[in-house]
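re: ur question from yesterday

yeah so i grabbed the chain u mentioned. its 83 aa long if i counted rite. heres the sequnce exactly as i have it in my notes:
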Amino acid sequence: DNGKVTLIGSWPKNTKNPICEVNYENNRQLDFNKHGVYATNVVKALQNRYGIKKINMVGHSLGNISIIYSTLKNGNNKKMPQL
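ran it thru and got these structure tokens back, copy pasting raw so excuse formatting
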């Protein structure tokens, strides 16, 4: 369970406010720190592919936990897209 990210699809160039749906292969594991790593890995993958600098995140259920733990870990990291 390494948190590998597979991006499917693409955004047309110059798309404003694109939406990316994230689904976890293992959504029953309850290690909240791992969920933070999963969310961080998604943001890094999008940053690498599209050069994003700012993001909005919306989560449901464990998705909210992912956002919280990712933000706790990376909220002050200026190399990461800012929430």
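noticed a couple things. The chain has a mean pLDDT of 90. also The chain has two helices and no strands.
anyway ttyl
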